[in-house]
Amino acid sequence: xxxxxxxxxxxxxxxxxxxxxxxxxxxxxxxxxxxxxxxxxxxxxxxxxxxxxxxxxxxxxxxxxxxxxxxxxxxxxxxxxxxxxxxxxxxxxxxxxxxxxxxxxxxxxxxxxxxxxxxxxxxxxxxxxxxxxxxxxxxxxxxxxxxxxxxxxxxxxxxxxxxxxxxxxxxxxxxxxxxxxxxxxxxxxxxxxxxxxxxxxxxxxxxxxxxxxxxxxxxxxxxxxxxxxxxxxxxxxxxxxxxxxxxxxxxxxxxxxxxxxxxxxxxxxxxxxxxxxxxxxxxxxxxxxxxxxx
Amino acid sequence: xxxxxxxxxxxxxxxxxxxxxxxxxxxxxxxxxxxxxxxxxxxxxxxxxxxxxxxxxxxxxxxxxxxxxxxxxxxxxxxxxxxxxxxxxxxxxxxxxxxxxxxxxxxxxxxxxxxxxxxxxxxxxxxxxxxxxxxxxxxxxxxxxxxxxxxxxxxxxxxxxxxxxxxxxxxxxxxxxxxxxxxxxxxxxxxxxxxxxxxxxxxxxxxxxxxxxxxxxxxxxxxxxxxxxxxxxxxxxxxxxxxxxxxxxxxxxxxxxxxxxxxxxxxxxxxxxxxxxxxxxxxxxxxxxxxxxxxxxxxxxxxxxxxxxxxxxxxxxxxxxxxx
Amino acid sequence: xxxxxxxxxxxxxxxxxxxxxxxxxxxxxxxxxxxxxxxxxxxxxxxxxxxxxxxxxxxxxxxxxxxxxxxxxxxxxxxxxxxxxxxxxxxxxxxxxxxxxxxxxxxxxxxxxxxxxxxxxxxxxxxxxxxxxxxxxxxxxxxxxxxxxxxxxxxxxxxxxxxxxxxxxxxxxxxxxxxxxxxxxxxxxxxxxxxxxxxxxxxxxxxxxxxxxxxxxxxxxxxxxxxxxxxxxxxxxxxxxxxxxxxxxxxxxxxxxxxxxxxxxxxxxxxxxxxxxxxxxxxxxxxxxxxxxxxxxxxxxxxxxxxxxxxxxxxxxxxxx
Lengths: 294, 324, 321
Prior knowledge:
The complex is a heterotrimer. By secondary structure, chain A is mostly helical. Helix content of chain A is about 70%, strand content about 0%. Chain B is about 35% helix and about 25% strand. Chain B is an alpha/beta fold. Chain B is globular and about 65 Å long. Chains B and C meet through helix 7, helix 8, helix 9, helix 10 and helix 11 of B and helix 5, helix 6, helix 7, helix 8 and helix 9 of C.
């Protein structure tokens, strides 16, 4: 007891809340299944140029609308393009829209929300009223206006979706910051003479990572659905590039004759959404501070 | 005798380890008496009472033993029968009055809830009963205040209301779990005074859980001292203080701050309670005890009589090697 | 020339908004604290003792009055110059579960106070933190653990160590032991006293329990509804309490002796009532010794005994009857 450790390596390290939470996460079978499935799917999409059996835009009308078989495992579309290949390439678009738009929403939402929550008072009121106004604005009209005035591009799509999704994130972050701001360890930090940005970055943000991560995993599927919806309306990605939303739209048109064109892209999207939701729920259970008592 | 608790053991089966929160505890509660259960946090005093009332979630927790209340074994009841007894014949008072009430309901609704749920038909009569019980607890203007919301009351007033809620069904036993720990000393004194008066009026038996022996001295008739899930000593309050028979009890008595003692000697027990996951043999207090010898760990930790109705587990006191 | 006291609180009034109503928590309070001494601040919850402590540290802005630390008026300073004084005054909070950042290791928590002042090598940092932990009765080999891996008493030790890490001159302890078990309470009180003596700290110890305050204080101030009603040297206040409220507080303390039943001594059922006490003494609706004048005029804090600095605000005492 009376000796002093000389070296950091001699000191046994503790279990952070984060580590304990991950321990609980690992006990959730559905979440593990979801993570593994997602990992494989993302890997396949990323490696699409290497593993895809065909090119995603090469048309071969003599093989149009083939049902799943040995040469085309998921069949082909009316233009003779291999569906498996198109799903892999479509997944690249869907995943990157999901990740980028979520990243935008996290970045903007966390900054906006933590500023509003930390400063409070008039600043908070003004910032959050702006969020309310943006909330009230109909999303579809907003995107259509954007698409009409600017040239359609992936970047615009990211921006449009991110611009909507950050609103909820900002509200969540603000509420979290408000409750942590009144905890006594923040007073203690102020009492040490710490600067505002140090308090926010070292004491507040680490304590809200849990909710932010949980909400992000739930935002990704929401964003992917939005992209599918916009593509379905013809406002999203343009052919010949494809996304899961476009594939589903095309599949839906020929649903009665060629059902596999709807089933496979639909399956890819819904399994992905399921997995992300399982992961999100498991993270919420694992990282919720209330469950770390006992 | 109104409650006879025999050999209760409670185990929490957790992922990492089994935690033996209560180990083979027995005690009796007589009519009209106040029994103090004293121990530090983690001593198992709250878990013991929750086990008796079947309030712990069944899968991770396993309770064995018996608790006879009117010839019914509470640990052997189905949940329906237990619900009839709980809140009706045996009621509870909790530590933190501000979180024990639902903030969205008027006090009146919450006060009559135990009555309604135990088959009281007339709402009007129930409300009248609530008003009477509030005036018994000396809440000023009960007719007006019972229709207010919990946040409109101070902590002391809410604790009074909670006592009223516990008494509204005319229970025979009240289990009070640290009812004054969250309160100021002055409010604490008034709440204890109120409880004493109501106890006489309703001829209640009270189980009073606390960590402060100072409160026990003025309030309880008999005391059970718990440590690390086991009972170390049980005696009448006078015997416990005047003929203390366990070093742990002695240490607890001495660590109560007082205004009479010398200012320079605040006694403290060194060290910390044992890890609840560790399985121990012998006396659990041994590592912190200033009177420990080799045999403390070797002999079985069991209560034996040292005087009339005075039991201790300290082997050295029992063998008359030690007088405290 | 009059020497400047270490800490001088002059006519401090603090209020805050609760919804639309303005609530004055501290009313015209004056205090002095000499270097190396401890002042006990006692009263029921809601009496303003915590607000007073927090406004001395400038967590709350005061409405009027001054807080002079070694002659420098903290309440008139801007944020930048206040930042230099902040580390000199540290607070120990009531709830050790809320006062430590759950995401930081003990090493991070305890090294933060000196890390913000200077760059320091990891080795020196570990040395310093080890020293702090040993001084507060903690095992230095636990320094990479997180707060939730410690018990309540140990966490309070960490909080004390953090306060000491800033090398403060003044420590304000706000009910540091009231959420702890009696046995742990004694450990923490003894630790605070030991540190106080060793480091020549000045301390303000806030509590609702006079018996706890007594072990650690040189002087005691009793607060009721934002005002100081009695103030004096510790021994004197206990041997000769004057204000009826102080007597009530004393009689409410549980005594570990079954022959003295403490709760029968109190026979006051009333709570503070702002309507009934609008004009006179704030304690008048609870006071067992109420006189006519108590309902009419508010008593001022007056010196009772010139030799011992014993002050009291009560008509019963001040009128000399």
